[in-house]
């Protein structure tokens, strides 16, 4: 009897919610919209300009948080921050060993691109795993 109650509680936690569809589609739709329609609005002046990934990255992180909480019962964001931080430290150490100059603006842009790529790949993997989890339930 206790095992049945525990199994039922686990299934209700893992159950599919229709609001999840928003988390599955929002990053991709926002990337398409910002990349096409919102491109003229990404420039503040001649010195400040944003890329579409700068706008979509926070949305991607929020969606990844909620999907990973539904899949794994914890957020994967802290683990992602640690991986990206270690990667940044590794790149800086590599440049120090090679005695290369570090230009902050270029390093930041490179790190943002790498972080977005890692986060997007993680988002796709977590989304596919969650869909498989829902379908096989």
**Strand composition percent:** under 5%
Number of helices: 5
- Write down how many β-strands occur, each being a DSSP E stretch of 2 or more residues: 0
First-last Cα distance: 21 Å
The helix fraction, in percent, is: over 70%
Low-confidence stretches: none
Radius of gyration: 19 Å
Sheet having the most strands: none
User: Mean pLDDT across all residues, rounded?
Assistant: 85
- Helix-strand pattern, N to C? HHHHH
Describe this structure in words.
By secondary structure, the chain is mainly alpha-helical. 77% of the residues lie in helices and 0% in strands. It has 5 helices and no strands. The protein has helices at residues 2-14, 20-36, 52-72, 77-97, 104-136. Helix 2 (20-36) runs antiparallel to helix 3 and helix 3 runs parallel beside helix 5. The protein is flat, with a radius of gyration of 19 Å. The model has no long low-confidence stretch (mean pLDDT 85).
Core attributes:
single chain, 137 residues, mainly alpha, 5 helices, flat
Topology of this protein?
Elements: H1 2-14, H2 20-36, H3 52-72, H4 77-97, H5 104-136
What is shown here, in short?
The protein is an all-alpha fold.
